[in-house]
Amino acid sequence: MIIRKARLADLDRIQEIELENFSVEEAIPRTVFEAHLREIKTSFLVAEKDGHILGYIEGPVVPHRYLQDKSFTEEIEDHSQHSGGYISITCLSIAKESQSLGLGQKLLTALKKVALEHERQGINLTCHDYLINYYEKHGFINEGKSESKFAGEEWYNMVWQNEKKF
Questions:
Q1: What's the pLDDT tens digit per position in 125-136?
Q2: Distance of alpha carbon 68 from its chain centroid, rounded?
Q3: What are residue 137's phi and psi, to 5 degrees?
Q4: CA-CA 20 to 30 A from 26: which of 20, 56, 65, 126?
Q5: What pLDDT is recorded for position 165?
Q6: What is the per-residue pLDDT across 148-159, written as a single tens digit (0 to 9) for each?
Q7: If you write DSSP's letter for every residue of 123-163 in order, what string do you get?
Q8: CA–CA distance, 110 with 116 (Å, rounded to integer)
């Protein structure tokens, strides 16, 4: 298995995995994934085995500590050309047939390496309360309820802080 940067040619499979795992309200629309594939320079990764995509993690580099709902839109601003900032994970998703293989951990670890290589302050995301423990196991800190209104749900701010000082 390899983890690599996502390509526009991966769009169909990414959308398929998204729809397997999220409700219509929470699923990121195809047009948004297409825009993200075009705009996000360093932080859209896929896990692939034998030419088949098993999962992905993605989100833009942003200047703020917490994920904002505008990160889920087509008009994203990826600040990867600037130093610092946070990688804002908008989605981590694993194909149903590949769940429980540790791919989420591998994708998170790969994204942390990207954050370190590009001297990001950290990584942020929002999640439901039942996923807080999962992200805490991977070094994220629960910083309380988010202001996010995405999909009309209640979300929690999770932050992985890069301990290196640049």
A1: 999 999 999 999
A2: 13
A3: -60, -20
A4: 65
A5: 65
A6: 888 888 999 999
A7: EEEEE-GGGHHHHHHTT-EEEEE----GGG---EEEEEEP-
A8: 10
- Which candidate, 111, 128, 132, 120, places its Cα nearest to that of 161? 120
The token duo for 33 is: 């994934």
Distance CA 7, CA 133 (A): 31
Instruction: Please state, in angstroms and as integers, the Cα–Cα distance from residue 108 to each residue in 7, 24, 29, 97, 151, following that order.
Output: 19, 24, 22, 19, 24
Beta-sheet strand order (sheet of 156-161): 61-62, 86-88, 122-127, 156-161, 141-145
Do 51 and 66 form a contact (C-beta atoms < 8 A)? no
> Residue 131, Cα to own-chain centre: how many angstroms?
14
Question: What is the CATH number assigned to the segment(s) 2-161?
Answer: 3.40.630.30
Query: For residue 112, what are its two tokens?
Result: 């942390």
Residue 99 phi/psi, 5-degree rounding, is: -70, 155
| Structure confidence by residue, pLDDT tens digits, 70-107 | 787 767 889 999 989 999 999 999 999 999 999 999 99
Q: What is the mean pLDDT of the chain?
A: 93
d(Cα 42, Cα 44) in Å, to the nearest integer?
6
Going from N- to C-terminal start, the domains of the chain cover: 2-161
